[in-house]
Write a structure and sequence with these properties.
This protein is mainly beta and 99 residues long. It is 0% helix and 61% strand. It contains no helices and 6 strands. A hairpin with a 5-residue loop joins strand 1 and strand 2. The radius of gyration is 15 Å and the shape is elongated.
């Protein structure tokens, strides 16, 4: 069983991108050899209104041995036109699928 253990976000110099670091824990009995990390990035308006959620995916930092934890960092971006001045993004949702 592979699970998201923790996530952290850091701003970049572009308001439509951020660095997302995710730690994974493999609590199963076999290695996770491949998979996908899916990010749900929310576009937040200047008044705090959540206008949209954009999904994107990246390859899992595999293999992750049984009983091990492993981290990866991705630059997650949405189209620049989706984030006008005064708005920002927050990658709040992270899920993982593995083989």
């Amino acid at each position: 069983m592979l699970a998201v253990k923790s996530t952290s976000r850091a701003a970049t110099d572009r308001r439509w991108c951020e660095k997302v670091t995710v730690s994974f824990a493999n609590t199963g009995g076999t290695a996770a050899r491949s998979g996908t990390v899916t990010f749900g990035t929310h576009i937040i308006g200047s008044l705090g209104i959540d206008w949209a959620t954009i999904r994107s995916a990246a390859a899992l930092p595999a293999p992750i041995a049984a009983g091990a934890t492993r981290s990866g960092t991705w630059t997650v971006c949405v189209d620049a036109w989706r984030v006008p001045l005064g708005m920002h993004i927050e990658t709040r949702d992270v899920s993982v699928g593995w083989k």
